[in-house]
Amino acid sequence: MLDAMDAATIVGYFKGKSILITGSTGFLGKILVEKILRVQPDVHKIYLLVRGIDEPTAKQRVQQEVIGTDLFDLLREKRGKGFQQFLEEKVVALAGDIIHDNLGLETPMLEALAKEIDVIVNIAATTNFYGRYDVSLDVNVMGVKHLCQFAKQCARLKMLMHVSTAFVSGFREGLILEKPIKPGESLREGTFLDIDAELRLVREVKKQLTMTNSSTDSDNDTDNNKTERTAMKELGLQRARHFGWSNTYVFTKAMGEVLLGQLRGDIPVVIMRPSIITSVRADPVPGWMQGTRTIDTIIIGYAKQNLSCFLADLTFVMDVIPGDMVVNAMMAAMVAHSEEKGAQVVYHSTSSLRNPATYNVLYQSGRRHFYENPRVGKDGKVIPTKEMYFFPTIARFHLYMILTYKIPLEILHLVNLLLCGFFSKLYNDLNRKYKFVMLLVDVYGPFAFFKGCFDDMNLERLRLTMAMKTPEDQMFNFDPKTIDWDEYFTKIHIPGVIKYLCK
């Protein structure tokens, strides 16, 4: 690792580099692409691997979903009339997918890329906590394998940056260290995680489902697809919990890390594990965000006044980190470990150790924001800001749901039977919604009561190499101690949620 770095060192590193980025249509991917283009216009090429049937489709996706966002307004203003031409010279959209061998690219393109790529950044992931197991394995696990295979073909490759999640640790208590996950390691004592066995299991279950559908002579593809989708979602959750993880997303991301460690060879690898990523704090657009995070559910529900209660202990720490700080850490780590043969470094981009923020900070910031900026309804009248009740335990929430919804549902079910199904549609609809809420609590609940604390000593060492002497150096700030959480939530994040998510 470099002994000392500053903004000039980081900016200079990306000059003339060719970079392959997956997941560029996602939140973090967009921030990274914009940052590199803005601070280092002399980057050679940024190749964005996106799903699309052909190159024009991929190019259109990049234009609409990446470049066309508000995040690029500062760069757009900076480049003026030459903005579009600049992007056409620097950004190349590739129609492909990491779930396929050779990344879904034709051989000539693959060979040309292998001669040119200096840095690979893998941000692509399916982040659905309750996603299909087969899809999650394809993207979060097999995608890593295919990228490693390609990386070994790249003659000039200096670095493979892989973005994971801090929650691959599971929901342990105490200090959680920045260390790789060993092959076979699981979170439940007495179990051994065999990735190949999991892949075989999925193939066997899907084969059995196909045979079952064939034996029932079902011609309804919609029903068959729905059956398979449900079966795959349930299998993912079941397997995750069998090995000690809470959901399919963190489970498959953990497997992806293991596979990366096994297949990387002597390629320099950095694994960045952010916690819950929140809106841009500083540049280029404070408050900009995409996609609803766990904590944003509280803000959106509070803003719309359709959420009277929430599952959280206000004294608990919610580990969050602004998206631009994650990208700053990624760029610094790429420079620090470039061409370190055989290196594999894990970084926690987190805040719970250095500058913890509780759920109460978020709630009080929300109350203050909405009192100072009252919402106005369609009728022009001010919508009063009400207090929200928080359930400090899952048991209390379950009791509330039983008394408020489950018992009335059972009464409705009984009445429906007595009236020969007169209320069937209403009952089925309400019952479906009730089960969905309980599933959400089951899947997301552990995050609200997470008692772990992420150690970030590795990232602290990297921070100590950073010289923060000039305003330019602040462009690469990733120190959570510099965040005033109350000010950030009140003036940046909550207004960002309202602007970008409450549409």
Automatic annotation (TrEMBL):
Which GO terms of the molecular function aspect are on file? alcohol-forming long-chain fatty acyl-CoA reductase activity
Cited InterPro entries: FAR, FAR_C, FAR_NAD-bd, NAD(P)-bd_dom_sf
Q: Keywords on this record? A: Lipid biosynthesis, Lipid metabolism, NADP, Oxidoreductase
* Gene Ontology BP annotations: lipid metabolic process
Q: Give the Pfam families listed for this entry.
A: NAD_binding_4, Sterile
Broad class of enzyme this protein falls into: oxidoreductase
SUPFAM superfamilies per UniProt: NAD(P)-binding Rossmann-fold domains
Domain annotation Fatty acyl-CoA reductase C-terminal: ranges: 405-503
Catalysed reactions listed for this entry: a long-chain fatty acyl-CoA + 2 NADPH + 2 H(+) = a long-chain primary fatty alcohol + 2 NADP(+) + CoA
> Into which family does the record put it?
Belongs to the fatty acyl-CoA reductase family.
Query: What is the documented function of this protein?
Result: Catalyzes the reduction of fatty acyl-CoA to fatty alcohols.
Q: What is this protein called?
A: Fatty acyl-CoA reductase
* Record organism: Urochloa decumbens
